[in-house]
Write a structure and sequence with these properties.
The complex is a heterotetramer, with 1 copy of chain A, 1 copy of chain B and 2 copies of chain C. Chain B has 5 helices and 11 strands. By secondary structure, chain B is an alpha/beta fold. The longest helix of chain B is centred in the middle third of the chain and has 11 residues. Chain C has 2 helices and 3 strands; from the N terminus they run E-H-E-H-E. Classes of the chains: A alpha+beta, B alpha/beta, C alpha+beta. Chains in contact: A-B, A-C, B-C, B-D, C-D. The complex binds adenosine-5'-diphosphate (ADP) and magnesium ion (MG). The site of magnesium ion (MG) has 2 residues of chain A, from loops. The site of adenosine-5'-diphosphate (ADP) has 15 residues of chain A, from strand 3, strand 4 and helix 17.
Chain lengths: 733, 212, 80, 80
């Protein structure tokens, strides 16, 4: 018995609950069903109670509770479906396939909704470059994403990459996909409906790959990772491309009643969820499932996570036409069962009924855990650094600091990554991955903004603050480009939830994200939880990554990330509602401190009005000040080839630390000199007079970066360091 | 002009090219890979980029043996204009309509970037609005764009003025910096860069607008 | 010494590449049953001993040449 | 009957993948001189006569499996 529980990754209490739900002990195949559907990955048993905190909605959210992805109506007949998902465990075991199938999976969540995928974004956290296997992990993950995304023809337009020792044995690979539903296109649902309708299997044949993947993702790592290899799935982007085209075609011809991809726990979760949502039953002939390997048994068929497969419900009369469309695209469509009044799901295997069970017993009765956590103090936090240490830094040579920044893997160029991604296929890309915010042109001639959030360095400082920041910072990045954040998706990567410290950080971060998104009126519409990111007892930095979409009403003249014109006035604008400090490297807790509190309501107002201001002004270049502070941000802005010279006496007198980053939310704008005074007037209107904090700090100049007498470096030199940082740190050419 | 746009399974720049044709005030029509077409029904043919047949075997190899390519060959033999972009260029080489072949990039990595190009030899069909030797910019996005032809062939290509476009700074190890090529009769063209991705200022460039 | 490493997709996996080639060949009226597409790597080594060299080739194969998840490999000596 | 078609790049210049693998192996201290990456295609046929079958395989190879500009091929019978 113990063996059996272990094999199916269930504990005694869960077993007792199964017996209670069924009124008898589970038999045969039922073990596998409960194992898969009650895994953390499928049931969200540790997180569900807290995810309710994301309940905030506004009128733009299209009702789609429990659907595959969140859908937001952005007006003009356009809807956006988007979601983010993790593929951490498989990517650590087998980086290329793990990352590739992560992309494939999240794309299926999008086109299942009837949306055409139009963009991808990737959030990657790696360990230190010298950690074992790290170079090949970086290489494998990036080429996995690149080969899959490029081949399916969906551009990867933005991303974020972090490096920290806490990811040495547990990297994070999160991918976001964004889809567009235009006027007249049909949105699909995953509710099975209409007794008598057919259950149709489409796509690649079922193989043994990925059996038990869902329950694997719900476990910590141990030394036996190699033994888990057979659990990793293999992807084929060419097949996926055919699926996208054919599925969108059958949807638009109104040939399907419901559609669902086969993701984690494969056929099991897709069929059970479709039935449970539609409150119907299903009769499924497992022996009709197309197989690659005829020796597969029913349990393997049910749990296989073979990629590029979909389950559809269609009216029998429409089946011939449906089959014709799939055939045209070189795919098979196979009837494997029927919808019944239910509520039972019956699984048949060659004249034998394997199980006859009410799906709601499994899906809705899944265990919920109220994991223990501590209530987080949500005020001024972590300030472990003493003032004398800050003073010491003042004496550091600014020139030297600039070079150090350029050479570091954290702050150096990421173009080794995104040059491998097709960023333009689909011809919607306005701003590609070389810019902090990705922009796509919508058919309505507006610009859709896409950014990822969560700065692990802030999470290491404070989980609640980190949660707020995971929404506010990307929203600020959008605002400085004149875009307003509309909605949020998340991917909550945490360690072991059975540990109270981890669970406490989880709850704090969730509350932070919920509060910030509500304050911005940008609801959290979809998401994903990845627990057990722990290897041999070491947890990762809690990393609640986020993806934001936003809108800018104009496609043209989006401010650039880089200085592009000489003689521009450069302004430094600060949000007065958050003060704090976070170090240049921001890697160690002791280097960080944060004082004061965030007033999230006012902060959100400030960000929103900034977005408005930018969309109304003729700003040439802009950036949110991020890691590395003001100095670093200005350095980056010069990478386009135009230099900068400090001219503010205030700034020259400030010590490095303060001038580096004393405020969490600040930004830089470069504007034509002729529009200077107009811009200042607008800035003053931004907030009640007393609270505006902005200053003219300098001008754009040719070819050099000058900061008082201390710094005078040529842009070419900065660029050289910046572009070489990757090959130097990772020895990847 | 009626312009046929060829679609293979795995083509992913099809809609992009369709749109480019429309925006250039021509009339696009789809040509499906399994169907042959009446060569009189279109005035020119474009083969868009992507990963036809998943780039299986060699890029362009499977597509070049498909039914629609038989008609494209017939069309080309009549001296009528055919343009292959990216994977379309690879397909034209594989089908023998253009000499040589496109190999894996020198770096063995996919490259997405903007590149500077120049017109080496003009022609009467595509990009004729760009004067010879004039420099312009287009995006590239390919893993296999390194042009190769054996020495004798290469010499012939150069002697006959078949080099159409060249890279100002070679991104992929292409022989003689070749970015675009035409056949001897100057009616079949292939190029690795994507003109359809540089049609409007918001795309980052407008030089692609000079192609049709 | 010259070695060859043949790497083929596992039988249990769908070899979509092989399938596509097979379909194309059949459409063009070639007579065949099935087709699978794999890779072939030729390596020349300098070791004196054949056993050592074979072992080295084996290690290289496992290091980077093949993916045990989806492929099987076999090694052969080519210059004998 | 089961056949194998081995398709290799004509020379190193054409084989950037082979060179990349070679460098990677050398960086990781493997002992080798040179490495080339090609393809291997396994085909099973139904013909009765071996000669006929071999001819058919040859034709398929020339039809699509190899590109004479950059590759050379060799055919072997596998199930004998
Ligand atoms: N994994 C990734 N995928 C795609 N683009 C990335 C990735 N990592 C970083 N980038 C891009 O590289 C650029 C630099 O990233 P970063 O160092 O975070 O600085 P910033 O976002 O402040 O410009 C960004 O524009 C970002 O979009
Ligand atoms: Mg960033």
């Amino acid at each position: 018995m113990k063996e059996k529980l272990k094999h199916y990754r269930l504990n005694q209490k869960e077993y007792d609950k199964i017996c209670e739900v069924l009124g008898r002990p589970p038999q045969g195949i039922e073990w596998a069903l409960f194992s898969a559907l009650w895994s953390e990955h499928c049931s969200y048993k540790s997180s569900k109670n807290h995810l309710r905190k994301f309940a905030y909605r506004n009128s733009s959210v299209v009702d789609g509770e429990g659907e595959n992805a969140g859908v937001v109506d952005i007006g003009y007949g356009e809807k956006i479906a988007f979601k983010m998902e993790s593929h951490n465990h498989p990517s650590f075991i087998e980086p290329f396939q793990g990352a590739a199938t992560g992309v494939g999976g999240i794309l299926r969540d999008i086109f299942t909704m009837g949306a055409r995928p139009i963009a991808l974004a990737d959030y990657l956290c790696f360990g230190e470059p010298q950690a074992p296997r790290m170079k090949s992990l970086v290489k494998g993950v990036v080429s996995g994403i690149s080969s899959y995304g490029n081949c399916v023809g969906v551009p990867t337009i933005t991303g974020q990459t972090e490096f920290h020792s806490s990811y040495n044995n547990n990297i994070l690979v999160n991918a976001m996909a964004v889809g567009l539903i235009t006027e007249g296109q049909t949105m699909a649902r995953s509710k099975a409906m209409g007794p008598g309708n057919w259950v149709v299997y489409v796509g690649a044949k079922t193989g043994k790959d990925g059996v038990h993947g869902a329950s694997m993702a719900s476990e910590s790592f141990d030394e036996n990772n190699d033994a888990k290899k057979p659990n990793v799935q293999i992807g084929d982007p060419f097949y996926e491309k055919l699926l996208i085209e054919s599925c969108l075609e059958v949807l638009n011809e109104n040939l399907v009643v419901a559609m669902q991809d086969m993701g984690a726990a494969g056929l099991t979760s897709s069929s059970f969820e479709m039935a449970a949502r539609g409150e119907v039953g299903l009769d499924i002939q497992l022996d009709q499932v197309p197989l690659r390997d005829s020796s597969m048994n029913p349990e393997e068929i049910l749990l296989s996570e073979s990629q590029e497969r979909m389950l559809l419900i269609c009216e029998p009369s429409k089946f011939p036409r449906l089959q014709e469309v799939f055939h045209r695209w070189g795919l098979d469509a196979q009837k494997i069962g029927e919808v019944t009044k239910g509520p039972q799901i019956k699984l048949h295997w060659k004249n034998e009924i394997l199980t006859d069970i009410d799906p709601r017993l499994i899906v809705d009765q899944a265990p919920r855990y109220d994991r223990e956590f501590k209530v987080w103090p949500k005020s001024s936090q972590a300030k472990s650094e003493n003032q004398s240490e800050i003073k010491k830094r003042k004496n550091k040579n600014l020139s030297e600091q600039l070079k150090l920044n350029s050479q570091s893997i954290e702050l150096g160029s990421k173009n080794w990554i995104y040059r491998q991604y097709d960023q333009r296929v689909g011809v919607r890309t306005i701003k590609d991955a070389s810019q902090a915010v990705g922009f796509l042109r919508m058919p309505s001639d507006r610009a859709l903004a896409i950014t990822l959030g969560c700065r692990p360095s802030v999470m290491r400082l404070d989980a609640w603050l980190g949660g707020l920041d995971a929404v506010f910072f990307p929203a600020l990045q959008m605002a400085v480009k004149g875009a307003t954040a509309l909605a949020v998706t998340d991917c909550l990567n945490f360690g072991n939830p059975e540990k109270i410290e981890i669970m406490s950080e989880f709850v704090a971060a969730v509350e932070g994200i919920a509060e910030a998104s509500k304050a911005l009126d940008a609801p959290v519409v979809s998401g994903n939880v990845s627990f057990y990111n722990e290897t041999q007892g070491q947890n990762i930095t809690s990393t609640p990554s986020t993806g934001l979409i936003g809108i800018r009403h104009e496609v043209d003249n989006i401010p650039d990330d880089f200085f592009t014109q000489l003689g521009c006035a450069v302004y430094w604008v600060r949000c007065p509602f958050v003060t704090g400090f976070h170090s240049l490297k921001g890697n160690e807790k002791k280097d960080n401190y944060f004082t004061g509190a965030i007033d999230s309501g006012r902060c959100a107002e400030w960000i929103k009005s900034l977005a408005h201001l930018v969309s109304q002004s003729n700003i040439i270049s802009s950036r949110a000040v991020g890691q590395g502070g003001l100095l670093e941000t200005l350095r980056r802005m010069t990478l386009g080839g135009i230099g900068f010279e400090v001219q503010s006496s205030d700034l020259l007198n400030m010590d490095l630390t303060k001038a580096t980053q004393e405020c969490f939310y600040e930004s830089i704008f470069a504007i034509e000199p002729s529009l200077k005074s107009k811009f200042e007037k607008k800035l003053q209107q931004l907030q009640p007079q007393s609270e505006v904090e902005f200053s003219l700090i300098g001008w754009t100049v040719p070819e050099r970066f000058k900061w008082g007498t201390e710094v005078d470096i040529s842009i070419d030199e900065i660029k050289m360091f910046h572009n070489n940082s990757w090959s130097q740190n990772l020895e990847l050419k | 002009m009626r312009i046929g746009v060829v679609r293979f399974p795995g083509t992913n720049c099809d809609a992009d090219v369709f749109q480019m044709v429309e925006n250039s005030s021509h009339e696009p029509v789809w040509l499906w890979h399994q169907d042959r077409f009446d060569v009189k029904s279109v005035d020119s043919v474009i083969i868009p980029g992507g990963f036809s047949y998943g780039d299986y075997l060699r890029c362009g190899a499977l597509a070049s043996r498909s039914a629609v390519m038989k008609s494209v060959s017939e069309f080309a033999e009549q001296g009528r204009p055919v343009l292959g972009i990216c994977n379309g260029f690879q397909i034209l080489c594989e089908s023998g309509l253009l000499p040589g072949v496109l190999l894996r990039n020198e770096s063995v990595k996919f490259i997405d970037d903007w590149v500077e190009l120049s017109v080496e030899n003009g022609n009467e069909y595509f990009a004729k609005k760009i004067p010879v030797k004039k420099r312009f910019c287009l995006p590239i996005a390919h893993g296999e764009g390194r042009y190769f032809a054996p020495p004798e062939e290469l010499k012939k290509i150069q002697d006959k003025g078949q080099v159409w476009l060249s890279y100002v700074k070679n991104p992929n190890g292409s022989l003689k910096d070749i970015a675009g090529l035409m056949n001897e009769k100057k009616n079949v063209f292939g190029l690795m860069p994507h003109p359809e991705r540089a049609m409007q200022s918001w795309m980052g460039g407008t030089d692609g607008g000079l192609f049709l | 010494m010259k070695w060859g490493v043949k790497i083929m997709p596992r039988d249990a996996l769908l070899d979509s590449q092989g399938r596509a080639v097979e379909n194309l060949l059949k459409e063009n009226h070639f007579q065949l049953e099935q087709c699978r597409v794999g890779r072939y790597v030729e390596i020349s080594t300098t070791q004196a001993s054949e056993d050592k060299a074979r072992e080295e080739i084996q290690k290289m194969t496992q290091f980077v040449l093949y993916n045990p998840l989806i492929e099987i490999f076999s090694i052969e000596r080519l210059d004998k």
